[in-house]
Predict the structure.
Amino acid sequence: MNILVCIKQVPAKDAPLAIAGNWIKESDIGFEMNEPDSYALEEALRLKEKHGGEVIALSLGPERVKQTIKEALAKGADRGIHIADDNFAQLDPLGTAKVIAAAIAGQKVDLVLTGLQSDDHGFGQTGVLLAALLNLPHATLIMQIDVQDGKMKLKRELEAGWFQWIECPLPAVLTIQSGINKVRYATLKGIMAAKKKEIAMITRQALGVTVEPTQKIEKIYVPTKTKKTEFLTGTPKEAAAKLVEKLKFEARVI
Amino acid sequence: MKILVIAEQRQGKWNNSSFETLVAAQQIASAGSATVSALVIGKGVAVLAGELASKNVAEVLLVEHDLLDAYTPDGYCAALKQVIESAKPDLVLFPHTYQVRDFAPKLAAMLGKGMVGDCVGFRSEGGKLIFVRQMFQGKTAADVTFTGAVPWFVSFQSGAFRADQLAAHPNGKAPVNAVSVNVNAADIRTKPLELFKEAKSAVDLTQAPLIVAIGRGIKAPENIAQAEAVAKAMGAELAASRPICDEGWLPMERQIGSSGQTVAPKLYLALGISGAIQHVVGMKGARTIVAVNKDQNAPIFEIADYGIVADIFEIMPALTEELQKAKG
Ligand SMILES: Cc1cc2nc3c(=O)[nH]c(=O)nc-3n(C[C@H](O)[C@H](O)[C@H](O)COP(=O)(O)OP(=O)(O)OC[C@H]3O[C@@H](n4cnc5c(N)ncnc54)[C@H](O)[C@@H]3O)c2cc1C
Ligand SMILES: Nc1ncnc2c1ncn2[C@@H]1O[C@H](COP(=O)(O)O)[C@@H](O)[C@H]1O
């Protein structure tokens, strides 16, 4: 079973964001693997361990995303695909999906996995759009995958603690929800092995995809506060004492 | 301009954010000159169509088919594509539910269009519609406009509009028009099976008057004891954001948010939680919200009544002590 995992590199969770037009200043901040994508990668590795085949890690973005592809290779992915594009942040969801779909079309894969949402753009659309463009069945928010007789039984998360079982044929596209498994760390051996693994680089231009934007991010900004927060200051002890005082006598909740 | 709202039902029950989206549609319509229609899709949902018709809408489209009884992305997309092609709306609005995430981007793509998802609001500037959505996990907002030809597809985040502002139909009822669609069993590639909940949980956080919740700021499972000490001193239940439950540090039944519990306690103390919308929808109904976070720009402070910008590892022991003192 050949599995391709789409992995986005996003700003590190605690990175201080400096807004620049409709994106952020990329210098001076760290980047990391988008969290749901690390769960998707882990799921791909587990499926491969059970059913054989190869795991391909694909990322679209500037040079920096190679680091995240290498991390995937160190964890056990067999090879990487880097779609090089310095302007990937300006693509809309459909554009992103068209570019990635064009790169996937040339691969022999049984299953495409994505995260359910990226921590930066947060479109929550790429996986579903890939399915539409590749004309494959799909399911989203997946919390369990059982492969049997060429098809899958999937556990899909719904709202408020509900789940649903779904049957889905292969090939297909699935978007993976965080928490589906326990992700592994790369071992030293894995990191060494990754050095010999291939990362194929292709530019967005070379894929020959024409993308016509359907939407445009005009600008981004820090949202205006709707509620007035009273900040309690001082040493930890002072702040804690003030809080207890407020909760007792002002809010009267304790 | 014609606005079409796709309302959501499951097994004959509304997803209530459908009505919030209807409010959004009414507000967009009153900012320009537009008509609002609402659509319900499924099987045996005529009663629900009647309910929609009592709201201030120009018409209700009723889309029924045997193969639309249970939701499938293939079935819904096939049917709705036909309806949109014939009804020709300019703007198609959805509530941003898990079901909408599952099919709406594909529906838009089948028509060669784009979707702006998970919007928290809109503005109309000089006749131009601007949709506002969050980026970077709520740390920034983004103004987004459509660039291509209509129809445009938009989904609104749950809680972005208030369902109690929904206007009723001015004179009785809007017409309900059934739209027939062609759906073939062969086009539906996935098979939905049973819906279920995990085994009933021992704790019912919805009944807890006081909740102390931890997020990824707690760093490691061995640190949870410090938060437990705060909870104990306060007489509160312990809860968590999703990553804590994903890691298995606390059981999933203690997860607050869109995929976990929705709570409305007297007090919600958030320790090291950033305040992503999927968490906030589960706790913003709390009467008093307190956030402790070392990042003064964390979105959680947007909804907090009291905030402390500090390291939780300094605050937790101090707070435990002060709480014990206050109890005497
Ligand atoms: C479809 C979907 C469903 C989801 N469902 C849920 C859900 O039900 N519930 C849920 O919670 N999430 C849910 N999420 C995930 C959600 O988007 C966020 O990723 C999650 O809530 C973040 O958890 P967090 O705030 O604990 O972690 P982070 O976002 O990583 O925030 C950690 C915070 O801790 C602060 N911090 C770190 N160290 C310290 C310290 N020493 N002292 C003080 N502060 C510190 C940081 O400044 C940061 O603000 C869902 C996401 C999706 C896409
Ligand atoms: N630039 C990218 N490179 C690789 N994968 C991506 C990229 N953008 C989105 N994805 C995949 O699509 C998922 C959803 O992203 P989004 O639609 O932006 O929320 C992510 O979790 C990734 O798996």
